[in-house]
Fold:
Amino acid sequence: AGLFNLIGSEVDDAYIAKVKAQCINPELIESAAEDLKIVFTPIHGTGNKPVRRVLQEVGFKNVFVVPEQEMPDPDFTTVGYPNPEDPKAFALAIDLAKEKNADVIIGTDPDADRVGVVVKNAQGEYVVLSGNMTGVLLTDYILSQKKQKGTLPENGAVIKTIVTTEMTRTIATHYDMELIEVLTGFKYIGEKIKEFEQSGSNTYLFGFEESYGYLAGTYARDKDAIVASMLVCELAAYYKSKGISLYEGLQALYEKYGYYKETLQSLTLKGIEGIEKIKLIIKTLRENPPTELAGIKVVESRDYQAQKGQNLTTGENFTINLPKSDVLYFVMEDKSWFCVRPSGTEPKVKFYFGVKGNSQEDANHKVAALSEAVMNKVSQI
Structure:
């Protein structure tokens, strides 16, 4: 019937060309290529060929692939959970990195739309970055470099999901760029790109979500680990050219913008009884929102299902111009926040927390206190 078409290499070539076009400083890669060491694991997935190809074509020379995880394996025998969101997925990659004295480790998930990053800290230990950490590093790099080159558009926009770090907003504001928030799910970021193209209202610069999904460029409508892998390696080359590591680069951003810290807690409640408990938790928090947590006043509540928010200090209501979604969001007096939403795919309710501290220790302490206060409240429900 002529309905079966084999897609040839011309599609791969066109795609790789679009990815490479997102490279901001090719000359940096050239100067760092000999010294920069990269360990890569596709975790038995589809990232193996495209990531290696794009890194090679932009000029990286020392890319070491984890041999045990290079080839496809539908059973993922080397990992318990084949996802770069799980630090344990990097065990073999870290072993190889120690052997090669690698500057950076990248790991893509099986369908190559998420990427995890591991960097070496001041003590020489390999530390797994959170999705938020990688996201702010990429946001600041893209905006700072475009500004330096004079290619930052006046109507530029960065997009993040509502549960992604507020540090992104601070960075966007610093560069006079608009920060646009969307619901959880990368499709909403993709929709904004389409909207920009149709209306001409903004120029898309970068978008990401805390769950390890990133996209630079408008050639795709979903998160893409291939372009993110290339940009993370370019970022490592950039910091190496400044004589510092990616880890030290991140610390410098905290010094500049503030010490932001986020965490996520999930409560799994199985069965019919579990579903009822999840509904009760959401209903209780919706109808009786907390007024104070860990000794800090709650100053704003947002109900994305009702598409309404309220300033709890003035009593003023405002409209949320986003699609309806069963999500509740609370902002504290010190700009800390927490968000609760039921998982769409599992018998879980998820709690997201974000704070800003005066130091790393302060931020760690604040996020621990906030999450403990919320989870205590939930256990009483």
In short: The mean pLDDT is 96. DSSP finds eleven helices and 17 strands in the chain.
